[in-house]
Write a structure and sequence with these properties.
With 110 residues, this protein is α/β, with parallel strands linked by helices. It is 32% helix and 15% strand.
Amino acid sequence: DVRSRIAAPEQAFVLVSVGNAKVGDTIEEALLALEQLPDDVHLAFVGEGYERHRERARQHRLEGRVHFLAPVPPTEVADFISTADASPMAAGVRSETPSICTSATSSSML
């Protein structure tokens, strides 16, 4: 599950974003928002193409709070993300909205 994969402390609040990175994703905005949140808030990106943002996360001093995870099979997504506390939806990412909604709806997050 996502919480154990990122080795999040029990009291951590875990956000998860599911789907492959795409042009127009609001990753920078997510990093800026995470900077403003308490240190026990973590953000996990699950999918391909997020690794290119690792340096930006480091520049924002978010190492250990931003996690880049490999994709999981579609049939396993709901179970994998079920231990997260929330799944943020970025308004600027129209193509991701359906899969994020489906994943969040299928898990116990809603």
